[in-house]
Amino acid sequence: MKTIFVAVTLWLLLAPASFAAPADEAPDALVKSTVNDVLAVIKQNKDKQALRTLAEQKVLPHFDFRRMTQLAVGARWRQANPAQQQALEGGFRTLLVNTYTNALNMSATGSQTVEVKPAQMKSDQDEVVVHTLVKDPGKESIAIDYRMARAADGWKVYDVVVENLSLVTSYRGTFASEIDRSGIDGLIKALEEKNRTFAAG
To answer: Are 171 and 72 in contact (CB under 8 A)?
Structure first.
């Protein structure tokens, strides 16, 4: 879980942050042109509420949480009715925001830099992986790959792979175990309880 904790931190920390990004902007250009803006905000302000606002307003609009939740839940997603699917998506989204805010509050320094590799893609391609390398003075570089899909309002991230560890896949085992124990509603309740714990802390 510690690895996932770090993965979520880096993933949200280094995500594209501009509301005004053109819908046709290349995914690698989007990452490269906006990542420094996020790092600058973090370097100047580590207030917990400010970090949460940063996530809610500047980071999360660039992620496809429905697809991420579907991938994390796996085949069991089809067992959920529309209301349950909506609850799962909302719970997972909140969990990631809470994890990000707490982890970033403890570990972000603003000293990170990111090398973004040029994306190899065709003009009509609807999905792409953007490879990046996170560098922090005195530490080993970390490879982070953004799996992105084209949407009507621009490119959206639907998974992040940190050192070959997929974020959504890492949650899949935990979610499957919870569903085996107590069904879809049990997973929804588990997410709600986890988020209450974050809120109380």
So the answer is: yes
Burial class (CB in 10 A: 0-12, 13-18, 19+), 149: middle
Q: Do residues 130 and 145 touch, judged by C-beta distance below 8 A?
A: yes
Query: Residue 135 forms beta bridges with which residues?
Result: 113
Determine the Cα–Cα distance for residues 89 and 66; give it in Å rounded to an integer.
Answer: 6
Question: Could you report the per-residue pLDDT of 68-121, keeping only the tens digit for each?
Answer: 999 999 999 999 999 999 999 999 998 887 776 666 565 556 677 778 888 887
Stated as kind and residue range, the H or E segment containing 141 is: none
pLDDT for 11 beyond 90: no
- Report the interhelical angle of 167-200 vs 65-73 (nearest 10°): 110
DSSP designation for 76: G
First to last CA, the chain: 18
Q: How far apart are CA 90 and CA 191, in angstroms?
A: 9
